[in-house]
Every structure is written in C-alpha cells, then in structure tokens.
User: Fold this.
Amino acid sequence: MGCTTCSNNITENNVPNGCKSNGNCASGGCERMSVFNWLADLPFPSGMKIFDVVEVAFKNGRKDFYRNEKRLNLCKGDTVTVEGAPGFDVGIVMLTGELVKHQMKRKKVTTPTRELKKIYRKSSESDIASWKDARGKEWETMHQAREMAIKLGLEMKISDVEYQGDGKKAIFYYTASQRVDFRELIKMMAGQFKIRIEMKQIGSRQEAGRLGGIGACGRELCCSTWLTDFRSVSTSAARYQQLSLNPQKLAGQCGKLKCCLNYELDQYADALKMFPDVRRPLKTKEGDAIHIKTDVFRRMMWFLVQKEKGGNSIIPLEIEKVREVIEMNKKGVFPKDLNSFAVVEEVEIEPAYENVVGQDDLTRFDKNFNKKKKRNNKRNNTKNRKTNPEKKKEGDKQHPTAKKSNNRNHKNKRNNRSKNNNKRTNTSQNNKPKE
Assistant:
C-alpha cells in the first residue's frame, strides 16, 4: 500500500496503520524501494575497510549513491542530510556495506567514488522540519504549473513535482509526445515560485507508477508498489502465451503493454520447446490439417482439417500423436484421417434427479402469492369505499348508463315472468274438459 493511501487511516496518536511515518517516508510506497542485504549477517574480513558509499532513496523511486566521508554509523532507515545542487537534500538510507558495490554494477554507475556527492550528517529536527514544509508545497505548485502550461499552449502534462529538502530547488516531471520548448514556462515558474527549476521528462510507465491505481487483476499497480525497473514488453510475449492480440485487453493504464506479460514468459517458452514444429500442415488422404490452437497446460494441439470433398472439421490431438503423424508424413505415408488419433473427451453424465419433496419448483409460491394479492386488493377496495364515500358518488355520476341498463334488465325480467304466467293460465283453461 502506498504512503498516500495508508496515511488516510490515522490512529489516535496521529500515526498511520501502514508505514508508521505519517506518509513522509519518501519511499514512494511501503517497502517499495527496500533492498534485502543478504551480506549483513556474514562476518566481515579482518584488515578490510567497509565500503564508504551509501545508497539513499528519495521521493517516488529516485535513488542515488553518496559518499560517507565522515564514517558515520548509518543503518537502513536512517534519515540523512546530503549534498544538493545547490543547498542540501534529505533522504533515507536504503543500503550500506559491500552490497552497494553490486548495486552500482547492476545499475551501471561509472562515476568514480571520489566524484560522488557527500553525506553531511544525520538529519536534525530543523532539517526534517524544512523538508516537510517543502513537501507540503508540492501539490499546489504542480497545479499552478499546469495552469501556466495551458496558458502558453504547451502540449505537455506535468504529472509530479519534487522539492529539495531545503526548498531552494524543485524537479518538475512531465510527459509529452513531442519535443516541447518550455523556456518561457521556466521563466514564469521561476518568477512565481522563486526557486531553481529542473524539468525532467518521463515515460508513460513512470507516470503510471507515480500516480498509482488499480489494475485489471484488482490489485494496486505493480509499478506503484514494488516494480522499479521497466523492461520492454513486445507482442511476442502474448503470442507465446496463446493470448488474443487485443490491444484493449493487453494494454495497462499507461497505454503500453502490461508488464505482467513478462512474468511467466520464460516458463511458457520452456514448455513450448517440448511441442513439435507444426509450421507445415499435417497431410492426410482427406486433406491438409492446419494448426490453429495450442493448450500448454493440457499438452494438446488443435488442427483444422480442410477436406477435398468439402467441409471442415476441428480435431484435438495430443503431442505424441502429432509426432506420430509427422513421422508418417516424412516416410511418405498419409493416414486416412485424424479421427483415429483424436482425443476422445468423456462427456460427464449428470446423475438422475427426482424432485421428491416438491420444494424445488420455481413456481411453487405463485399460487399463494396470487391468493394473497387478491385478498389485499379486496381489502384495499373496501377500505377506500369506507374512507372515501365521495368517490363512490362520483363513480355513480360518471356511469349513469350502467344504472339505466340494470333497470331495463329488471323490467324485461318482470315482463317475461308475467308472459310465462299468462301462457300457463291459458293452457290450463284449454285443457279443461268440455261439458
């Protein structure tokens, strides 16, 4: 977790839960720039002097080597005041002893030790106070510099500002796609901030590491947590790992190919050495079979058979079967088809399942729900009639035809009844015997 994020969870004693330095560790991230000194526990040979060069870390991954002329007893994590250009700067000791030699060789530092800058002293309270004051100005200074660059119409983006420990100098980190003439910008910033200014161009990967963020994996970016050296990533890394060449999926937040494509590249390259060379198609009597896919983990290869009679089919083969077919083709033997060599994948049959209890039906609650719904509707209607009798009157006024139709129906029923009665009396009279 970076300092800017872990400093948000402050405890009662104004100390964060993470690095315990209140966000001022200048390491660019908790344990991001730390180096394990594997020579610390080994006994030092007698008669030899300890190497007097120390590796010091500053803000956002910047490291440099300084000469310990005064032979100060320095340990990892000590805050030291070093020589600046001009003035002094404040940094944190990252590495001491003989391992610094190996670090200088790895980073290809060719400057002789005599020409390296010096360490003045262990930082005092006044040095640390001025260092904190200078770092407090960085955020506001960065935004003011961006406004100046926009006014001048410069196509550049100032991503970060780093003040020197004494506050007399500041480094402005920027990104630009083309060459930028920022001489007028430097004059404006020097007049505004009254400091010495240094402009430093960085790449998009370094910018993403300074700004931070969350990657596609759900974790913080590698470049903002632990990755300090950026190696070139090519599309061949994606081809070796059988990934689709989709730039939207392969690119990170910096717009370049993801650095994590190189993490497992060596293992994939070693595994692919065991696979046969299938640049030439496999020949059969049905037609040629072209390689289209490889599964490194299952050690299988898929071939597209282009039949002469028409119609294509995709057949999976194991590595050993592919080698057999290649050896047969070298001898001039062409198999009838690849179905005899294909891998037969067993289809898993799900066990028979019976709904004995009857509780797994998706519609088992629908009937009860509909009954409850009808009951609630009836209750709501009765309540509305009781509470709002005016609505009932309005409804009667709104539908006068309904009443008329009901009255007509009642009259028709009465007339029909009277006619039926008259018919019965007439029939009874007619059926009487004549005298």
